[in-house]
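Hey everyone, long-time lurker, first post.

I ran two proteins through the pipeline my lab uses and got sequence/structure pairs for each. Pasting them in order. The first:
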Amino acid sequence: MNRFIVIGITDNPTPFFPPEVLEVIQRGKVFSGGKRHHEIVAPLLPPDALWIDITVPLSKVFEQYQLSTVNCQLSTIIVFASGDPLFFGFANTLQREFPHSPMTVYPSFNSLQTLAHRLLLPYHDLRIVSLTGRPWHEFDRALIERAPKLGILTDREHTPATIAQRMLDYGYTDYTMHIGEHLGNPTLEKVTTLSLEEATQHEASMPNCLILHSPHSSHSPNLPQSPHFPQSSHSPHSSHSLFGLPDSEFSLLDGRAKMITKMPIRLLTLQALDLPNRHTLWDIGFCTGSVSIEARLLFPHLHIHAFEVRPECEAIIQENARRFHAPGINIHMGDFLSVCSDAIAAPDAVFIGGHGGRLKEILAKVKAVLADDGIIVFNSVVAPKVSIDSHRLWDEACTELGLRQEPPTKIQLNDHHPITILRCRK
């Protein structure tokens, strides 16, 4: 069984280690870390040290760990990692890969701690999001939930400039960005405070991290004064963006007011989907995107996939998502029955907003991927000009597919035709 000693280091080319750690290094035989780590600690390693570079794929690195300890008849591997190895660090990976191996960790400050100290910014309430090799979901969620102070770990795709542009695109303008580059390196370290507009033009060198800070936070006594960013009429801090989005403020398909799930119906639909207890929502036939957008704002933990066959609706949902500050909706264009869903996260909640007369086929495809006890909701409209009896199709499909129906909810708004909210479970 391997034993791991994981030592956190900064970008300083002449690192300081306490005597206990120096003794560990001097007695070591097998060492590992990134190429940059090797450059930093090479003068401190014993002459006969064996070094294993941490590169992808990690499976080959782990094979080298096993071989090296067998060949050296030793079980201890000393790993160098950036900052605090337990903070989105390599120690977490080792624990996952070698769950029964003993481990000792000697941490350093992580990059966000270092940046907060440079800014004299209290960070006990800092919300941490890692975008290093990760999608936007948790970052978008933090914005929707109005986190006043965000610490972001970046990578070459999620740069300070692209992060700032995303925030501006969706109207989250009321933040100042603090960028830390090469933190801990006495020659290259740089800390810059910028508005989001300025940050979109800033080319930050790697490695870097950033802290986003809103003036609404109560902890900003030592920070530079950030410029005032005027809020739009659809500000993410306005009350109507939190619950029940006004139908009149959506861009519509061909200006047709009937082509949107009305707000009261929309909220009842979301309630029927049991979204607080769901993980992934599919919105089939999104049209204006009103259901997806309302769900994204009310339940930002959700992963939402929206499907639509009409190509003109793609621009409409994108415009509405920006208008209501709802980043992170995954849009899939084309005939739903032809869309390959293998790479799309399986849903545990599905809303069918449009079916084009193929409700049975859609339900069959959904059932094949729906999680156990997953919920499907469909709104059936009773109107003289509607030639397809969608309620009858729903009943037949649920019976044929073995879907368990639950009591429907019937509602009529003003002079509109009655709507029945239908729900079933797998």
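...and the second, right after it:
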Amino acid sequence: MARLSLYDPFAEVFPELFRSVLQPVRAGNGGDALEIKVDVKETDSEYKVQAEMPGVKKEDIQVQIDGNRVAIQAEVKRESEQKEGERVLRSERYYGSVARSFMLANEVDEAKASARFDNGVLSLTLPKKAAPTSKRLTVE
């Protein structure tokens, strides 16, 4: 059986020069930037969303609902503490905002939607908007 391999033209000429340029960049100077990981579950009447947001304060979270689009945004401030008499050899901090948005199959009833934040997990209950009923008119 023939073996396939990926040809990298820069590997022979510039082995290390371009390799780091083509790699995906992680924010935060070596620190792990926050990513919002989301689980979405659906029932007949609502969507249940759980978003992992460790280290984020409840006051720094914003949720916006526009029809069937849900957007979650948070301001992130991660710092390492320095105690008196200590010398900092390396400090990794991440400041910035992180956002995640997604579309649902049905529109959400914004008036009945609710959000709760507990132990780094944002829980959203998003009731589906009732589909408009059609009425058949009798022509006289």
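Reply from user beta_strand_b:
Welcome! Quick read of the second one: The CA atoms of residues 107 and 131 lie 9 Å apart. Helices lie at 9-13, 19-22.
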